[in-house]
Amino acid sequence: MAMNTRILKELYESSEENFGITVLKLKGEDLLPLVTLLKDECGFDLLLDVTAVDYPDCELRFEVVYHLYSSRHNRRLRLKVPVPESCPAVPTLTGLYGSACYAERETHEMYGIEFSGNGDLRPILLYEGFDGHPLRKDYPIDGEQPIVAYRK
Amino acid sequence: MMDFLTTRRDELVGWVRKFSIFPYPFVTACCGMEFMAVSSTLYDTDRFGAALPRFTPRQSDLLMVVGTISHKEAPIVKRVYDQMCEPKWVMAFGACATSGGFYRNYAVLQGVDRVIPVDIYVPGCPPRPEMVIDAIMKLQDRISRERHPILPFEKQNPVRN
User: Fold this and answer.
1) DSSP letter string, A85-137
2) What ipTM does the predicted assembly reach?
3) Looking at the complex, does the CB of residue A129 fall below 8 Å from at least one CB of chain B?
4) Whole-angstrom distance, CA of residue A25 vs CA of residue A29
5) What's the whole-model pTM score?
6) pLDDT tens column, B28-37
7) A5-116 belongs to which homologous superfamily?
8) Residue ranges per structural domain of chain A
9) Is B74 in contact with A143 (Cβ distance < 8 A)?
């Protein structure tokens, strides 16, 4: 465990405690090794959620957020991965957690985050043909894209 | 003994139709709770001849759009409406079905009347049962005053867009 703690510390950039949840900030390329380690060695057996935050003024515009839970230790963990607007991509976690599939699909359609390796990024809440990503800050608030033609 | 009754045919047909409303509850959201309250014993729309919900649009003549309609759902509402036989009426039940309610975003249709013609609107979030009963009575009043022509099919069923 001591060795693993040392490896763990190399895989994230900063950590803080927020409302009883440990928050780790890390780079995209460290995500897969870190989560593998957390799942296999530290007992984080549940991926609760994948989502993103849009910070339009930041250099790294998007922050992909993961919530992990350990049912053995009753501990929660939040991982934040900042990604740039030019290449909003992180590796997929579908190989480790089945629940990542739907959550990544939702994050993909709402924020336009690419999950490299996830082959099934069809829209899940939106519909085919929807243009843009509605939860991005630059999406117009009344940007409707009706399927049925309106009556006169 | 001359027992007969004279009336106008429209009035007779209207009187018959207004007490045999078969609603189709298109329930999508929390207004459905209020719909349950208004159709069950306490408020009891059975008293107005509008109690028996039909769960197929082909057997119903009042489409009650109960709740928020999203853009993704609009084609379904349209299809359900198209499947109903004439004569048919539509009630927009609640603020969301009427105008989109407090939703103003990419997802929600701003009132179901953008897709299908609506005969009566019931505002409220959700509406009080009394308002729904009032709407049913107003609709019945309207049905009884409508013309009920018995004409060739295409004349009797003008395409309403």
Assistant:
1) SSS-EEE--TTT-TTHHHHHHHHHHHH--EEET------SSS-TT--S-TTST
2) 0.75
3) no
4) 12
5) 0.80
6) 988 888 888 8
7) NADH:ubiquinone oxidoreductase Nqo5 subunit (3.30.460.80)
8) 5-116
9) no
